[in-house]
Design a protein that fits this description.
The structure is a homodimer of 291-residue chains. Chain A is an alpha/beta fold and 291 residues long. The first copy, chain A, contains ten helices and twelve strands. The first copy, chain A, is 35% helix and 21% strand. Chains A, B: Its EC number is 2.7.1.4.
Chain lengths: 291, 291
C-alpha cells in the first residue's frame, strides 16, 4: 500500500506514489488544463496502485476550514476554470481513503520538516520564489492556517531608494510578490532572470527585497529554520546575498546565535531539492493517515 | 487553593490571586525597582495564600526555551539590574508549584482567548501599543514561540509620505515601534498623546502605521481575531481609523467576510479591558497546572 501525492500547480500537476519515509516510487506529470481533463489523468494514474492515503498540496486560494461547506475547494483563483473546483470531493469519489489537503507551500514546509532541511525542528518556513511568492509555515509543530491561510508573499516591502519599478501585483502593485517574483524581475529588467545571471545589480536588488521579507517573517513568526526554494533561487549568488540582507535588516535586534553566527544553517535551500513539493504532498498523506 | 499571577512590567509589577474562571480575588501593585526589592514584595504578597500554580507574564526579552540552561530568565533587557535574572528559579524556591512563564503579550493573548475577546477561536493576536509595541500570538491553539519569541513590534513599516519623523527605535530607527509607540508620538509632536486628543492628523498618522502593521500580521499569521490594547489605544477615535487602514492596505486581497464585512468584530479592544495582562498571567498558571 502506497501513499499518494499530488503537487497541484498552476501550470502542471505532479502525481506520485511513495513510502512512509518520503521515498517517491513512481511519478507522472500532467499539464494543468481544465479540471475535467487534468483530473482524468490524475485519477487514471492513481488507479494503478493500492493507496492508503492521499495528500494534495494545491495552488490557491483554497478552503482549508474543515467546518466550511466548501472545504477542499479551490476558491477564487484567477485560473477561472478551476474556480470552485471541489478537489477533495472529486478525489474522495474515486479513492475512499484519508485525504490531506493544504496549500502547496504548507505541504512543502511539512515535507521539509519530516524529511528535509527542517528535520528535528518544531517550527519552520518554506518560501518559494518563482512565478509567485508563497510561504508555508509550521508553528509549534503544526501547519499554520488560521482564518484562511497565510499570504506572506503579499506583505508590503520598503522600496529600495534606487528602484523605480512600479511593481506588478494586481492587488498591491509593489508588495513583495509585485517587486521580487520572477515576472517582476522580467518586467523590471526586460529579460528573464535566467538571462541576467551576470548582472550583479539584479540579484543585489532581489536580495534586498527577499532579505527584508525574511527579516519581517523572523520578527513575526520566529521560526527555527527558513527554507527558500523556487525557480528564482536557482541563481546561486542569490541566497548568500539574501542572508546578508536578513542580518542587515534585523540590525542586531534578535540576539540569537542561529542568526548572528549560523545564518548559513538558518536560511537554507530545500533539503529535498526539487522534490520538496511532491514529498510535501506525501507528508500530507502521511499526516492524514495519522489523524 | 488559588492561581497566582504576576504581570511583570518595566515600571510596575501587578500580583494577583484568582480562580480557574479568570476572576481576580485580590491584587497588589509594586514598582519595578531592583530584583531584590521588587521580588521581596512579590513573595510576601503570595505567602498570604495557598497557591496551586503561578503564571508569570513578563517584560523581556526572556528565555522561553525549556531545554536552555537559562530557561525562565530575563535575558538582555535594557533594564540592567534585571539582566540575567532567574525569574522562574526565584519563584520556584519559594513556591514549589507548577509555574507558567511567557511574555506579557503572550500571556494577554492566552487570557483573551480563554476568557476575553478571542474566546472560541483557535488563533488570535494580542497587540499592545504603549511605551513599546508588543504582540503575542496564538496559532492553531498554541502560544507562538519558535526560535525565541516574536518581536512583531519591530517590523519595518512603510513611511507615510508626509511624515518626516526619523523614528526612535535604537535598533531600527523607523520600525513600527520607532514610528508609532507612545514615545514616538511624543517625540514627533512635542507633546504626549493624551494632550493631542483633538489633533486629528496625529491619530490619522498613528492609524496609518498600526493599520499597516496589522495588515502585515494578517498576511503572515492569518489570525481569527486581533485584539488591540495599551495606553495609546485609549484615544477612542483611533481604533476605527486603524480598521479603515487595515482594509486599505489589504486592498481586497484577503477575501473573507471577517475582514470585508465584519472588521468591527475582527479588530477589537480587549474583552478583559485593563485586566488582560493580569488575567493572562492567571491563564498561564492554569495552563501550567494542566501540563
Amino acid at each position: 500500500m502506497y501513499l499518494g501525492a499530488i503537487e497541484a500547480g498552476g501550470t502542471k500537476f505532479v502525481c506520485a506514489v511513495g513510502d512512509d519515509d518520503g521515498r517517491v516510487r513512481q511519478r507522472e506529470m500532467f499539464p494543468t488544463t481544465t479540471p475535467e481533463e487534468t483530473m482524468r489523468s490524475v485519477i487514471h494514474f492513481f488507479q494503478q496502485f493500492e493507496l492508503k492515503a492521499i495528500g494534495i498540496g494545491s495552488f490557491g486560494p483554497i478552503d482549508l476550514n474543515k467546518s466550511s461547506h466548501t472545504y477542499g475547494y479551490i476558491t477564487s483563483t484567477p485560473k477561472r476554470k478551476w474556480e470552485s473546483f471541489n478537489f477533495v470531493g472529486e478525489m474522495s469519489k474515486h479513492f475512499p481513503v484519508p485525504i490531506g489537503f493544504d496549500t502547496d507551500v504548507n505541504a512543502a514546509a511539512l515535507g521539509e520538516r519530516l524529511w528535509g532541511a527542517a528535520k528535528g525542528t518544531n517550527s519552520c518556513l518554506y518560501m518559494t520564489v518563482g512565478t509567485g511568492i508563497g510561504v508555508g509555515a509550521i508553528v509549534e509543530g503544526r501547519l499554520l492556517h488560521g482564518l484562511l491561510h497565510p499570504e506572506m508573499g503579499h506583505i508590503l516591502v520598503r522600496r529600495h531608494p534606487e528602484d523605480g519599478f512600479a511593481g506588478c501585483c494586481p492587488f498591491h502593485n509593489d508588495c513583495l510578490e509585485g517587486m521580487a517574483s520572477g515576472p517582476a524581475i522580467e518586467k523590471r529588467w526586460g529579460k528573464k532572470g535566467a538571462e541576467l545571471t551576470n548582472h550583479t545589480e539584479v540579484w543585489e536588488l532581489e536580495a534586498f527585497y527577499l532579505g527584508q521579507a525574511i527579516a519581517q517573517y523572523i520578527l513575526t513568526l520566529s521560526p527555527e529554520k527558513i527554507i527558500v526554494g523556487g525557480g528564482v533561487m536557482k541563481q546561486t549568488q542569490l541566497l548568500p546575498a539574501v542572508r546578508r540582507y536578513v542580518i542587515d535588516f534585523l540590525n542586531g535586534y534578535i540576539q540569537h546565535e542561529a542568526i548572528l553566527q549560523h545564518i548559513d544553517e538558518y536560511v537554507v535551500r530545500p533539503g529535498l531539492g526539487d522534490n520538496a513539493g511532491i514529498c510535501g504532498a506525501l507528508a500530507l498523506a502521511k499526516q492524514a493517515l495519522g489523524e
